[in-house]
Amino acid sequence: MSEVLIPIAYQLGVGGIGGFFVGYTVKKITRIAIIIGVVVFSLVYLAYTNVINVNYDELIKLWPNLADPVLGLLAPFISALPFLGSFFVGLMYGFKKG
User: Fold this and answer.
1) DSSP code of residue 50
2) Which pLDDT value is given to residue 48?
3) Residues 87, 22: contact at Cβ < 8 Å?
4) Could you give the CA distance from residue 8 to residue 16 in angstroms, rounded to a whole number?
5) Could you give the CA distance from residue 5 to residue 17 in angstroms, rounded to a whole number?
6) What Rg value do the Cα atoms of the chain yield, rounded?
7) In the chain, beta strands by DSSP E
8) Contact 28/98 with Cβ under 8 angstroms?
9) Phi then psi dihedrals of residue 28, to 5 deg
10) By CB neighbour count within 10 A (0-12 exposed, 13-18 middle, 19+ buried), where does 26 fall?
11) What is the spatial distance between Cα 39 and Cα 54, in angstroms, rounded to a whole number?
């Protein structure tokens, strides 16, 4: 029984602590995310007003290259659910405290 509980407790502990630090850090660097959002919004607006030109055909061609790695991560994601759950709880707590 302990050979099952120890790895789960380890994943929960490491996930919770890691999540706390990530959440705390994310809360502190929110300004950077806002700046990035403003830049992306500006690029979208410039493309909408035809100030810049976006080649959507080439952008769509990139999708298969981006989708394959994402779909390949699904199996490890399922096996890491205890870690991810505690990571998310720690992330929210760190974000709240930050």
Assistant:
1) T
2) 83
3) yes
4) 12
5) 18
6) 20
7) none
8) yes
9) -75, -25
10) middle
11) 15
Neighbour tally for 89: CB within 10 Å: 16
Alpha-carbon torsion 87, 88, 91, 96, what sign? negative
Q: Which residue has the tokens 């500006």?
A: 42
Can you tell me whether residue 6 is helix, strand or coil?
helix
Q: Cβ–Cβ contacts within 10 Å for residue 10, how many?
A: 12
Residue 65 confidence (pLDDT): 65
Q: What is the average pLDDT value for the chain, to the nearest integer? A: 75
Check pLDDT > 80 for residue 56: no
In this prediction the pTM is 0.39
Tokens of 20: 């706390």
Q: Please check whether residue 91 is in contact with residue 17, taking contact to mean a CB–CB distance below 8 angstroms.
A: no
Largest CA distance in the chain: 65
**DSSP notation for 21-39:** HHHHHHHHTHHHHHHHHHH
- As a 3-state breakdown, the chain gives helix, strand, coil percent values, each rounded to 5, of 90, 0, 10
